[in-house]
Design a protein that fits this description.
By secondary structure, the protein is of the alpha+beta class. The chain has a domain of about 55 residues. Helices cover about 15% and strands about 30% of the residues. It contains two helices and three strands, in the order E-E-E-H-H. The chain is elongated. About 20% of the residues have low confidence.
């Protein structure tokens, strides 16, 4: 095993998804023990974040940061949008 062979722990918050489009979801990813959060707008973006452990989340601004800070709390309300 090399020096980079270790596990990463993440907190994944999903704020919105569509039942008929399971790959369409919006949320934030936080790596435990590190500063910063990264936003995602699709399953593919979430997968990319979880598989890019070499990148520092502070280097990638969250596309959701502005929307969440202007909303009611971190979750932005009840969600759904029905």
């Amino acid at each position: 095993m090399g020096s980079n062979d270790f596990s990463h722990d993440y907190i994944v918050r999903i704020y919105r998804f569509e039942k008929d489009k399971p790959r369409s979801l919006v949320g934030l990813v936080e790596e435990v023990g590190k500063r910063g959060k990264r936003g995602f707008n699709s399953f593919d973006e979430l997968w990319e974040i979880l598989n890019s452990s070499t990148k520092d989340p502070k280097d990638t601004p969250s596309p959701l940061a502005g929307r969440i800070s202007r909303s009611r709390g971190e979750g932005g309300g009840k969600g759904g949008g029905d």
